[in-house]
Amino acid sequence: MSLVLGLLSHTLSRVLRYSGLSRGCHAPSRGAMEHDKAMEVYDIIRTIRDPEKPNTLEELEVVTESCVKVNEISEEEYLVVIRFTPTVPHCSLATLIGLCLRIKLQRCLPFRHKLEIYISEGTHSTEEDINKQINDKERVAAAMENPNLREIVEQCVMEPD
User: Family per UniProt (predicted)?
Assistant: First the structure.
């Protein structure tokens, strides 16, 4: 119950801050709106489960609030850039983590977006190859056609009870 109240309080303070109501201001600035969208993205990805550990990506610090950037492309579309950090430089599941991030955001983001997902620079031994794979729509589609891989992704992106 205290967790729910804490989340509710955190969400309400964020809404008040970015609406300008807490300062007696009017509409939020573009930067505040982009920050709000980034927090919305983070709230979606933080609960993704690690493929081999019983923890979330947030708990393992694979994703943090600072790894999400959102920039307005047009009035109704945003560029979402995520730079995640694998737990070890030779992580064999980094591609799968990137796939989970992409699938969950494609399903859950409530606004129009372009999505770019990268491994944080210098944090993985094959980051360039993995970055190409997780940002290639055809490779992502092919991966999700594999029933075994799809099942793992579904387990990782499933919302906790």
Answer: Belongs to the MIP18 family.
